C-alpha cells in the first residue's frame, strides 16, 4: 500500500503522521474520525496503525507474517504487549491498530554506547535483561514464543518495564503455525536466531532466551556473538560454536554477567536457563549467581570441543516442541516464606521438608527463600542496626535454614524483604517474580488467630497468583523428650 | 426504531442482490447474508454417534448451551452401540427442524448388511443386529441420506470428499489434501471441509508450502479459520472416542467469527456400556467406551 498522507482516513481512522517506515510496514499515529462508523471514541491511550507494504499484485502469501501478527496480538494480554484495538480485513484493507507505546527501544542503549564510547554499566545491563525476561515470560505463559526478539523490537518504559513488539514471526501453541512448511526452514533474524530455529524448530521458549543472550552480549560488549551471517553455513555455526567470551572484549565485565550471557547462548536449549522467569530471577540477584569457569574464562572454546560438537550438530534436525506452557511448568519457581521471629526448629524443619517436596523430582525447579522483616529492625543511625548489617544477618540465617537442600539440582536464592505488611510483601514478591508455588507456615504466621483477624497465610492464600501450600508443623522436637515407652 | 428500519432496508437490498449468487465473489457475501438472515451463525458438527444416546444427548445439550443455531450431523449414526433406533428417531426429528445430515459407512452397512464372512471387521458384527433393531421407515431414512452436503463455502462429508462412497480415512495431511482437492473440484468456492470417520479431532491447514500441514488442537480454544485459506477438520466422534479419553467429542464452527472450537463433553459412559451389555452385544464394545479406545 502506498504511503498515507496526514489527514487521510482508513476504515474510520484518521492518519496524523507516519512515525516509522520499515521494510515490511509503515506505522502511523492515528485517531478515530469524528464521524466514525464504529461510533467509537478514543480508547484513552494513543494509537498506532501498522499497514503492511505491498507492491501491486502481491497476494495473501506475501503478508503471512502480518496475518500471524494480527492473530497473535489479538490473543495476548498483559502489560508487556501493546493493547490491541482493531484489525482490517486482510483481503480488503490489511491494517492493525494497537496502543502506541511511548518507550525507548533497547537499540537506544546500543546507539548511546556507540556515540559516547562509554560501556554500559553491568547493573544497568542486568536491570534491562531482567525486564526483558519478565516480559518474555509473560508471553510464554500465554503459549506464545516470540522468535524475533531484537533491540528494535524491545521497548523499555520509563518505569523500567519492557514491552515487546512485532509478532510477525511468532508462534502460538494453540493456533496452527501458518509460517510452517513441510521442509522446515530457518525463520527469524540471523543475528539473534537460536540454533534450533536454524534447523526449523519453532515453539521452544528457550529460543527466546537465546535471543535475550545475544542482546545482553551486545549491551555488554558492543559486539555480535555470532556476527551477522549471510549464508546457511554461517548461520549453522551457532549449532556447535561458543561465541568468544565477552570478557575478552571487555576484561572489566563481572564474571556473573558473563556466566549469565554464555548460559543463555548455550548451543543446546537444555544448557540454557529453563525459563525466562529463572533468567529474570538470576539477573535480579547478581550477587547470588553461582559463577563457574564459564564466567571467568577469556579464551575461546578449544577446537577439539568444537569439532566434537560439529559432528553432533550435523545430525540435528527438526523435532516438534511441546506447548510452551507445558515446558515452563516443568521448571517452576517455588517460593518459601521463612519466618525467624518466634519460629521453632520444628517449624523450620517442616518448612524445609515441604519446600523440598515441592521442588520434587524436577531438576530444573528453582527455590526462592524469602523472609520479611519489620522496618523497625533497621536503623539509619545505629551502626549495628544498619540496613546492610541486618540484611546480612538474615541472609546468614536463611543460608543456614537452607542447608540440606540439594543445590546441585536446584538453583537457590535468598531474599530479605523489609515491610510492615508481611502478606503484601510476600504477594508482591510472588507476582513480580512469576512464582508458581508459595510454601508458607500455617502456625507461625498465625493461622490459629484466623477467627479473630485475617492472618498472613489466609491473606496470601486468598490473593496469591499461584498455588499455596500451607505447612503445619510436625510434632515439635521438645515434645519428643516427653514421649515415654510404657 | 431507526436501527430497525435501517437493518430492514439493508436486508431488502441484500435480498435483491443475493437471492441468486452468480459470481464467486458474490458467493462469500451471500453466505454471510444467508447465515445472518437465517441465523446459521454457530454450527455444531457431530459425527460418529454410533448408537450412543447418552453421548449424543450430552453433546447436543452442550452445543445448544453454547448457542449453536444449526446442527450438522456427519454420519455413522448407528453401529457398535445399543440404541440405534433412539438415535435415528432423534436425527429424523432434527432433520425435520432443519438439521443437516449425511450418510456414514455404518449407516450404509445397516441398510445393506454385508454377508457374514470369516474375517469380517468388528463393525460388521453389529450391522445385522442393528438392521434388526431398525424399523422400515428408519432404514429408509438412513438409506436416503446424501453422501455430502454443501452450504456455500462449507462441504460436509463423512469420510473423504475424494469418492465419498469409498469411505477413505483422512488420517494424515496427505489424506486431507486429497479430500480438499476433490472438494475444490466440486466447487471452487469451498473453503472448509469438515468430516468424521476417524474418531479424532485434527485440523489440517495450508502453511507456506504446497501441501497441507497437520495441527493437533487443544480442546475449548477457539482457533481462527479465516476464509481466505482452505481448511480440513476431522470433528471427532460423539459416541466412540478413540484417543484414550472417554469424553465425547464434537466441534463448533462460528461462521461469523470464522473460529473453530474442538469440544470435549463428559457423559455417562457407564450407562451406554451397560446398555451394550444388556443388548447382548460383544462386551468389547462396552469396555472400550470407558477407556476411549
Q: How is this structure best described in words?
A:
The complex is a heterodimer of chains A (486) and B (293). Chain A has 17 helices and 16 strands. Chain A is an alpha/beta fold and 486 residues long. Chain A has three domains: 9-99, Phosphorylase Kinase, domain 1 (2-Layer Sandwich); 104-325, Transferase(Phosphotransferase) domain 1 (Transferase(Phosphotransferase), domain 1, Orthogonal Bundle); 332-479, Rossmann fold (3-Layer(aba) Sandwich). In chain A, helix 3 (122-140) packs antiparallel against helix 5, helix 3 (122-140) runs antiparallel to helix 9 and helix 15 (422-432) runs parallel beside helix 16. Chain B has one domain: 4-Layer Sandwich (Purple Acid Phosphatase, chain A, domain 2). Chain B is 41% helix and 18% strand. Chain B contains ten helices and twelve strands. Chain B has helices at 2-18, 24-38, 53-65, 84-96, 105-111, 122-133, 136-144, 173-186, 269-278, 283-291; strands at residues 42-46, 70-73, 100-101, 148-151, 154-157, 192-195, 201-206, 212-215, 223-224, 231-235, 248-254, 259-265. In chain B, a hairpin with a 2-residue loop joins strand 4 and strand 5 (154-157). Classes of the chains: A alpha/beta (486), B alpha/beta (293). Chains A and B meet through helix 1 of A and strand 9 of B.
